[in-house]
Write a structure and sequence with these properties.
Layout: E1 8-16, E2 23-28, E3 31-35, H1 38-46, E4 57-69, E5 71-76, H2 89-98, E6 101-106, H3 117-130, E7 134-137, H4 153-158, E8 165-166, H5 176-189, E9 192-195, E10 208-209, H6 212-217, E11 221-222, H7 224-241, E12 245-247, H8 253-264, E13 269-273, H9 275-279, H10 301-313, E14 318-319, H11 348-357, H12 364-379, E15 396-400, E16 405-406, E17 425-426, E18 429-435, E19 438-442, E20 445-446
Parallel strand pairs: 1-4, 5-6, 6-7, 8-9, 9-12, 10-11, 12-13, 13-14
Antiparallel strand pairs: 1-2, 2-3, 4-15, 15-18, 16-17, 18-19, 19-20
Helix pairs in contact: 5-7, 7-8
Bound molecules: N-carbamoyl-L-aspartate (NCD) and zinc ion (2 copies).
N-carbamoyl-L-aspartate is lined by residues 77, 109, 169-170, 196, 294-295, 322, 324, 340-341.
Family: Belongs to the metallo-dependent hydrolases superfamily. DHOase family. Class I DHOase subfamily.
Organism: Dietzia lutea
Active site: 322
């Protein structure tokens, strides 16, 4: 459905960035048409009858809820093509919309992988047909994510999907010469390489964070150095290639220090952190529940604290979910056999709000920076992460900061249920999502 066929929306009594008194926001033809008391007048003037849906004006009273720019996820696994039993572009888009997302970047570790234009353009088209959020396919850096032969990034970048982010996520571009060439090529193309930082020879057989807990539980450890040695290497390679590099799912105190150092050197490096690395730590391993298995692994409490501080200070640029759906049988098994990864799209906002806004460390405007504005900038999106202002594209998330809800995996829109937050209660909830001027969710219900 394109913008012109969407009904005009009047969002009553919303508070942009949670600031000031409630105002009305009029959305028409995909854009913000008016903000303030006169928005209602605009609506009346715009169409004779004020009715629900149809060609009239759809009125939605949000009773003082917080209005934010729609969220942008740089790191989502939609699993289509290949593992449509765990997620599809449609179910993943529905989960994104329920989470307040209006754009997601779909990682390349699909089957077949998104390592050529045929697959990236196909994912892009399906995402557009689903029409619940912008689906930007991420292109692989190397053929088959094998880390040896560079893909035709230029073809994927010039295809219909206009791929602008490339990553072998799930795998690391571990060979320094291949990474150097990829960075040099990306600099010429003006695209971004996002690295899953994992030195594979340091993580052979590893299933959990290498620390006292894994040692006591007899789980083979993933040392921090496996991530940090790649972060340090890639910062230097990016510097010398005159390229940008983005670090996926930063997880350790050391990575935060390396990012601080690299940014101080003027190196073009950005980084994301996931909600699970902000909230959880390896004490969760006590249960041996496979839902807590993830790459990179949950670290220690002081790592999570360092990641929260880094997000507040800007050393870490943004939140990304690393939404990683897995089938029940791939998680309900002994820990070392469980597939790594956890759901994230529908629980990111409440977690970041609980950890950083409710604590007073961040304002809602700061939250908009790390969940919308900054990821959109990093990916070079011109119509996402925009200010809430007249004329801007209507990609919006409406958040009720005090509407407690409890996470139930089976009730999530994702096709999978591998959430590590089962049974947890959060105060903040997305109560409405507007994507290119169209309401995609209202009170948690995904609208067609
Ligand atoms: N994070 C994970 O543990 N798994 C991700 C891949 C990845 O992000 O490394 C997946 O695709 O399942
Ligand atoms: Zn990864
Ligand atoms: Zn991932």
């Amino acid at each position: 459905m394109s913008a012109h066929s969407a009904p005009t929306l009047l969002l009553r009594r919303v508070r942009p960035y949670g600031e000031g008194d409630p105002v009305d926001v009029l959305v028409r033809d995909g854009r913000i048409a008016a903000i303030g008391d006169d928005a209602g007048a605009h609506a009346e003037a715009g169409s004779a009858d004020v009715t629900d849906g149809g060609e009239g004006v759809e009125i939605l009273d949000f009773d003082g809820a917080v209005l934010l720019p729609g969220f942008v996820d740089l790191h989502t696994h939609l699993r289509e093509p290949g593992r449509e039993d765990t997620e599809t572009i449609a179910t993943g888009s529905a989960a994104a919309a329920r989470g307040g997302y209006t754009a997601v970047f779909a990682m390349a570790n699909t089957q077949p992988p998104q390592d050529n234009q045929t697959v990236t353009d196909s994912v892009f088209r399906i995402g557009r047909e689903v029409g619940l959020c912008d689906v930007h396919p991420v292109g692989a850096v190397t053929v088959g994510l094998a880390g040896e032969q560079l893909t035709e990034m230029g073809q994927m970048a010039s295809g219909e999907a206009r791929v602008r982010v490339f990553s072998d996520d799930g795998m690391c571009v571990y060979d320094p010469l291949v990474m150097r060439r990829a960075l040099e090529y990306s600099a010429g193309l003006g695209v971004l390489i996002a690295q899953h930082a994992e030195e594979p020879r340091l993580t052979r057989g590893a299933v959990a964070h290498e620390g006292p807990t894994a040692a006591r539980l007899g789980l083979t450890g993933w040392p921090r150095s496996a991530e940090e040695s790649i972060v340090a290497r890639d910062a230097i390679l990016a510097r010398d290639a005159g390229a940008r590099v983005h670090i996926c799912h930063a997880s350790t105190t050391g990575t935060v220090e390396l990012l601080r150092w690299a940014k101080a050197q003027g190196i073009s490096i950005t980084a994301e952190v996931t909600p699970h690395h902000l909230l959880l730590d390896d004490s969760r391993l006590e249960s041996y529940d496979g839902v807590y298995r993830v790459n990179p692994p949950l670290r220690e409490a002081h790592d999570a604290a360092a990641l929260r501080e880094a997000l507040v200070s800007g050393v870490i640029d943004c939140v990304a979910t690393d939404h990683a759906p897995h089938a029940a049988q791939e998680k309900c098994c002994e820990f070392a056999a469980a597939r790594p990864g956890m759901l994230g799209l529908e629980t990111a906002l409440p977690i970041v709000a609980a950890l950083l806004v409710e604590s007073g460390d961040m304002t809602w405007r700061d939250l908009a920076r790390v969940m919308s504005t900054r990821p959109a900038e990093i990916a070079g999106l011109s119509d996402q992460g925009r200010p809430i202002a007249v004329g801007e594209p209507a990609n919006l998330a409406v958040v009720d900061p005090d509407s407690p809800w409890t996470v139930v995996g089976e009730e999530l829109s994702s096709l999978s249920a591998n959430t590590p937050y089962e049974g947890m209660t959060f105060a903040a909830r997305v109560v409405g999502t507007v994507y290119r001027g169209r309401l995609t969710t209202r009170d948690g219900e995904v609208l067609a």
